[in-house]
Amino acid sequence: MKHANPSKLGGYASSFSTSGGTLKFEGSAHFRQRLVCSTLSGRRIVIQNIRSESDEPGLTEYEANFLRLLDGLTNGSQIEINETGTALKYTPGFIVGGTIEHDCGTKRAIGWFLEPLVCLAPFAKKPLVATLRGITNDDVDVSVDTFKAITLPLIKHFGLDEGLDFKVKKRGAPPEGGGEVTFRCPIVRQLRSIHLVDEGFIKRIRGVAYCTRVSPQTANRIVDTSRGIFNKLIPDVYIYSDHYRGAESGLSPGFALSLVAETTTGVVLGAEAAATSGSLPEDVAKSASHLLCEEIQKGGCVDTSNQCLTLLLMTLSPEDVSKVRFGKLTPYSIQYLRHLRDFFGVTFKIKADNDSKTVLLSCLGLGFKNLSKKVT
Question: Could you tell me which residue ranges the RNA 3'-terminal phosphate cyclase domain spans (predicted)?
Answer without folding.
Answer: 24-350
